[in-house]
Amino acid sequence: MSMTTTSASTDGLALRFWGVRGSTPVSGPDYVEFGGNTPCMEIRCGDRLFLLDAGSGLNACGLHHRDALPKDIDLLFSHLHLDHTAGLPFFKPVVLDAGRTINTYCGNLDGASAEAALDRLFSPPLFPVTLDVIPCRFAHHGFKAGEPLVFPDGVRVDTILLNHPQGSTGYRFTHQGRRLCVISDIEHTDPWPDPALSEFVRGADLMVYDGMFTEGEYPCCRGWGHSTWQKGVELARAAGVKALAIIHIHPAHTDAMLRRIEVEMQDVMPTAFIARERQQIDVGAPACAGRTRLSLVG
């Protein structure tokens, strides 16, 4: 797989990974290439910015952009488990900017917003600072996964409920004829692929999928809410998905192991790859149609 330093187009659909690990952050010499932060993605539909999940990778996102982020930030949660929320109080735009609004969207709580859960998480004795005293303003929005999100500028994001303990929300972004689907955290069902999920991701230029376990690991972890790259490939093939990115990487999977897995996966699906921190993708660009070209940013 080749690496380039091209940047995403300003009018297209772009994705950048800021955290790709599942469960807990990791560090050290065995975790340099793929990274060690928990889930956070930056998605741009033209000029509109979305952040998806607030894992430990959110800190790096805030440091990178500094003052370049919009005053109103739309933060979409797949769900509220710790590895998807722990970065929130360390996000520099939250800590430093009193003129900023963080709009949170959560779809796995039967219509309730993330407000009550986040207030419990970020309060003594679990955390010394409550979110209501942080300089920025929070506006929490609840919805039921399966309902579309329609924003004031007309951008629509479709959603689906995923099979995960306490539920998780999958997202579909469509812009300028390009389609990106983020399907994490999810455990595959039997039979597979699920027809409703296949229809949701059908024809996507890129699908981001939870491939935390190897096939050998999965039987011991059944019911934990995660899947394998093989099931991601099955879903992609059934739905005509053009490229596949594996995320929610197991914290014990080293760079060497992931490189071996990626080679095995690309022998089956050449446009599949394992996501890397700070990797940037122009979704639907010609590079996404062949063996996927990647960009790493500082």
- The domain tally reads 1
Percent helix, as a range, is 10-25%
Secondary-structure content class:
alpha/beta
Please state the CA-atom Rg, rounded to the nearest Å.
18 Å
- CATH H level: which superfamily? Ribonuclease Z/Hydroxyacylglutathione hydrolase-like
InterPro entries: Metallo-B-lactamas (IPR001279), RibonucZ/Hydroxyglut_hydro (IPR036866)
Domain Metallo-beta-lactamase: 37-212
Organism: Methylobacterium iners
Pfam family, one: Lactamase_B_2
Structure characterization notes:
There is one protein chain. With 298 residues, the chain is an alpha/beta fold. The protein contains 7 helices and 16 strands. The protein has helices spanning 57-65, 92-96, 115-121, 195-201, 229-239, 255-268, 286-289; strands spanning 3-4, 13-19, 40-45, 48-52, 72-77, 101-106, 137-142, 149-150, 156-162, 168-175, 178-183, 206-210, 244-247, 272-274, 279-283, 294-296. Strand 10 and strand 11 (178-183) form a beta hairpin. The longest helix is centred in the last third of the chain and has 14 residues, at 255-268. It starts with a strand and ends with a strand.
